[in-house]
Each structure stands twice: as C-alpha cells, then as structure tokens.
Amino acid sequence: MSPRLQKANNKQPPGLPGNFERPDGPDTASRLFWLGVGFAVLGVVLIVTGASADAGLKFAVAGGTLALAVRFFSRHGFAALLLPFGLIASLAEMLKNRLDSPAPVEVEPASLSGQPLGEGLPPLDLFGPPGPPAAYGAAEDAGRAVVAALAEFNVPAEVTGVRTGPVVSRYGLKLGSGVSVRKLYTLEGDLALALGVPSVRVVEEGGRLWLEVPNRKRGTVVLRDVLEKYRDKLPKGELPLVIGVDVFGRPLSLPLEGMPHVLVAGATGAGKSVCVHSVLSGLIALFPPEELRFIFIDPKQVEMAAYEDLPHLAAPIAGTPEEAVAVLSWAVDEMERRYGELKRLRVRSVTSIPKKERPFPFLVVVVDELADLLLSGDAGKEAETLLVRLAQKARAAGIHLILATQRPDARVLSGLIRSNVPGRIALRCAKSGDSEIILDAPGAERLLGKGDALILVPGQGDLVRAQVAWVPGDVPAKVSAWWRENRPGAGYLFAPQEEGKAAPGPSPGKSRKEEEDEALLREALDVALKHGRVSAGLLQRELGIGGGKASKLLAEMEKRGWIGPARGNRAREVLVEKAPE
Questions:
Q1: Cα dihedral sign for 446, 448, 449, 451?
Q2: DSSP sequence for 18-85
Q3: Is the pLDDT of residue 59 over 90?
Q4: What GO CC terms are in its UniProt record (predicted)?
Q5: pLDDT tens string 455-490
Q6: 397 carries a ligand binding annotation
Q7: Which CATH class is domain 137-214?
Q8: What pLDDT is recorded for position 245?
Q9: Is the pLDDT confidence value at 504 over 60?
Q10: Cα distance between residue 521 and residue 554, in whole Å
Q11: What percent of the chain is modeled with pLDDT above 90?
C-alpha cells in the first residue's frame, strides 16, 4: 500500500486533535477512560457500604467526569464536553442532597402491652409489671455432663437435642443397643447426685426419650407476661385456666369445661395458693360477670378476702362450715334449675348454646382449703355430699369445681371425690404416697417447689410439667376494685339474708315463708334446750330436715347468740336457758 493510502486509512474523526484514538483502543485515552470508570465504581461502593460517604461522592464524581469526558471528547470534540459536565454536576447535586437529608424516621406502632385483652376487660397493667428478661438456660457443657453421668452407670447414650424452659431443660437421649429404658428409671436418684441437682425425671413422650434436669439458674414466670402472649390469640376453650408455661416456656392453659373439675394439691410452701390465685386472676382477666360467676369457700377466711369487692361473686364468701353448706345447697338447687332450662331449650349442655344467647353464666365453685371444710364434723360431711353431687352432675349445667388442699391424704381426698374430680394439679409433695393420691402416679415428690407442677389432664396419657405463673399479692384487690367500678350493677345471685338469716328476731310484715322459717328456728332452739347441746345431725334426726337446712339453722342460732361457735366434731354449747320472747 502506498504511503498516501495508508495515511488516508489512519485519518482521525473530525474534531479529534493530535494523536488521540477512540477509548476502546489500547492507548492513553482508553486507559484514562477505564481509570475513570474504576474511580466511579469505588466511589459508589464507599457510598453504599457507608464506609465514607464524602470520599465516595468525590471518587464517583471525579471518576465519572473523567470517563465521560474522555469518551465524549474522543468522539465528538470539545463542544460535546458541555453535556457530560452538566450531567455530572446534576448527579453530584442529587447525591449531595440525598446524603445531607435526614434519614426517614420509622414510626413503630403503639405498643399494646398493658392494654386489655378485649373490650370491657381490665387492663393488664393491673396484673403487675412485666417480668425480667429470660435469663435461664442449660450450661454449655450440660449435654456432655449428662452423657458422662450415664456412662458412670454403664448406660451408653448420646444427646440428640436440648430443649430449655424456665425451670428444667430436656435432653433427648438415644440409648446404646441393649440398654433398657426401665434401667434409666431406676437410676433417677443416682443421676441427680452425679449431676449435682435436686432431682431428675425420665420422660417418654412423643415417641422420644427425654431426661429432665433442673437449670442452674431458674427463670421467673409472671402472670402478666403469660397473658400478654395471648393478645393475638386467646386461650383455647370456653373457660380456659391460665396456668403459666410448660416445660419449654410456652404459655399453658387448660379448658376447664373439658376437665371439668380440678383438684390442686401440694405440700405447704409448694405454691398451692399461688396456683389458685393465678388461675382466678386469669379468669377475671378474660370474663365479665355476665359470663362468669364464682362461689368462694374460704375456711381460713384470709385467702379469698381480697376478692370481696369482685362483682363476679354469686354469693358472699363463705367462711364457716355452715355458710359453706348453705351456699353449696344453693349451688345444687341452681344446678337443678339450669337442667330444667336446658330441657326447655332442648340442648344437652350450656356450651351447646351460642354465647350471646346463654341464659346463665358459668359458675365456678372454689374451695381454698378442702381439709378444713371436710373435717369439720357434721357440716363437713354434708359439704362433702354436696360437693360430690355437684362433681357428678354439674358439668353440663356450666358449674365447675376447683378444690385446693395442703393435705393430700385419703381422709381428705376420698375415693368419691377423686373419681369425680379427674383434673389434677400436683405441686411438690412430701412423699410419693401423696403423689399417688393426687396423680395416681409417683413423681410430684421430686418437683422443685415454688410453682413447679405436674398436671393430669383427663384423656391425656402423659403428665404435663408446668411452671405456675406468679401473681403479685395486691393484684386480686386491684382487679376486683376495677371490676366493681366498671360493673357496679352486678349483684349476688344468692344471699344468706334471703334465706331468713338476716333478721335478728320476729318483725311485723314478714312473708309466709319467713314466718315458717322463724317457727322452724324456734323448734331447733327447743331441741337444743332439751338436750343441752346441738349439732347438725341432732337437728336432722329431731326435726326430719336435711343437712343443708340444719346447717343454716345452726348459723342463725349462733348469730343470735343462742349457741356457741363450732368446735370441730363436738356438739355446740347452748348459751341461753330459755327461748327469747
């Protein structure tokens, strides 16, 4: 090729001075272009990662300017530089404004903590402050310690998983070949000593083998926190008993209407009273008086005193055995009345009726110390008869029993009561025999106390381990006062004065029934004066009346000062020499 033709082929585009070539060539312009691109990319990385926004902006602007300038200059001449510089300036201004502007503030939705669980229900702030953050758990080397302890007793095993709750941790076990699970049960005491804990428990559940070991640091469970967890989805059942949390720390509630009666028992200091108050507080957090009423029987006359203002009460709190018999007699009559209403409506139970159409509320009878009631002579025997009758028949009428005792022995928990009260909550017991009476199985004697419980749910084969929620002592009074202020119209369904107990003596204008009651009372006094002593059994024999009526007569005579107070199983003393005028 001639020099003239070669020069013509290498001719530069118009407007490109000197020896510059296109930026895609391997010369200086191309290197400058890619250098600019590199600086721009570095700047973007610095901005996005937040390492240095100012430096990133400078690198991005400088690199972008260089790259665009080289490309436009090499292709379109100097006049075309105005366009890229304008774009770069605009981009730089936008980036600067974006960096200088404050970050948008994310507005979190208002917290519902402490608010009621439903319309017309008390705020959860009344149930005490939230508990401390969960700080319990198994030690990091606890799994190895379990395997080592088992190996000491020639039980080869491996830990297949760990699940931790506030009180105990569960270790899933896979035993070596030829090792019997039965052997593991016999080693529970030895394993506890080897691990340095009060007790361990072997559990077969869900087709797996578990070893429950107490945590080194025990967690705190408060009722307020448990109720808060039910905010999005209320507990299952028509009448849920909020117990606390299960062994894995999940909220635990039991449907009372399905149990349908519950026995709460354990040794002194094990948490029986806390369990009762937790259950009652959970119920009054979920139900207004229109849907739920209570009968409280408190032989000690101190445990239930905080609920005196509660509008859910169907009757005044019964303190004496005679008052207990009177209110239980009314409950039996109410049960029969409800069955008549169910028959009229042609339904089998109250739960078959839609909630808004139910003609009567649920009624829960709570006896705080069953032993003090049942071992109080003739009145105690009559009370046991009435309780058994309610336990046998009252479920469909929406009447349920919660019986609590610190004396889980055969004298208190007779076969009739145990067979008709299938739901059981066992706190720590003094001996395995007490556990057998409560749960029909040992195990409660190895509980840790302070609300650690085993629960027997009817129809469920395995015992449920739970930690009962703690309730501050002032909660019942505070919540009762709130309900009284917001439901001032709720009154008693049964009051003793309606049964002829209020008047101190005859008065003009009495109804025929009141006159008959007064005449019977005078006959009872004549019996007392004749024998020089008086008891419910004596009145039943002499007057041909039932135990409930006899107990009411004794209570009225004591109120008028005619006879002395109850003295255990002994007959009462007569304080007057003749019948008052």
A1: negative
A2: TT---TTSSSHHHHHHHHHHHHHHHHHHHHHHTS-HHHHHHHHHHHHHHHHHHHHHHHH-GGGGHHHH
A3: no
A4: membrane
A5: 999 988 789 999 999 999 899 999 999 998 888 767
A6: no
A7: alpha beta
A8: 93
A9: no
A10: 9
A11: 39
Domain boundaries for CATH 3.30.980.40 within the chain = 137-214
Residue 84 has pLDDT above 50, yes or no: yes
For residue 260, cis peptide bond before it (omega within 30 degrees of 0):
yes
pLDDT over threshold 50, residue 325: yes
160 is in an annotated binding site: no
**Average pLDDT of the residues of the chain:** 81
Q: Is 177 annotated as a binding residue?
A: no
Cα pseudo-dihedral 376, 380, 384, 385, rounded to 10: 160
For the cut 80, the answer to whether the pLDDT of residue 222 exceeds it is yes
From-to residues of CATH 3.40.50.300 in the chain: 223-484
Report which residue type is found at 83: L
Q: Is 441 among the annotated ligand-binding positions?
A: no
Region 555-579 average pLDDT: 84
- The amino acid at residue 535 is S
Nearest 5°: phi and psi at 91? Answer: -60, -45
CATH node for 223-484 = 3.40.50.300
* Pair 558, 565: CB distance under 8 Å: yes
pLDDT score at 83: 47
Listed as own residue / partner, the contacts of 437-442 with beta carbons closer than 8 Å and 24 or more positions apart are: 437/265, 437/408, 437/409, 437/410, 437/413, 438/263, 438/265, 438/266, 438/408, 438/413, 439/463
Matching residue, tokens 């669980």:
117
Is residue 377 annotated as involved in ligand binding?
no
Selection from 374, 338, 320, 360 nearest residue 496 by Cα: 320
Closest CA to 361 of 398, 335, 331: 398
Q: What pLDDT score was predicted for residue 382?
A: 92
**In Å, what is the CA distance from 411 to each residue of 135, 297, 502?**
42, 19, 35
Was 101 annotated as part of a binding site?
no
On the CB side of 17, how many CA atoms lie within 13 Å of its CA?
Answer: 4
Is 507 part of any known ligand binding site? no
Residues of the chain with CATH 1.10.10.10: 500-573
Q: What is the CB neighbour count within 10 angstroms for residue 20?
A: 17
Q: Find the range with the poorest average confidence among 72-76, 131-135, 163-167, 339-343.
A: 72-76
Instruction: Please tell me whether 305 is known to bind a ligand.
Output: no
**What pLDDT was estimated at residue 197?**
92
Positive or negative CA dihedral for 484, 335, 523, 554?
negative
Does residue 376 have a pLDDT over 80? yes
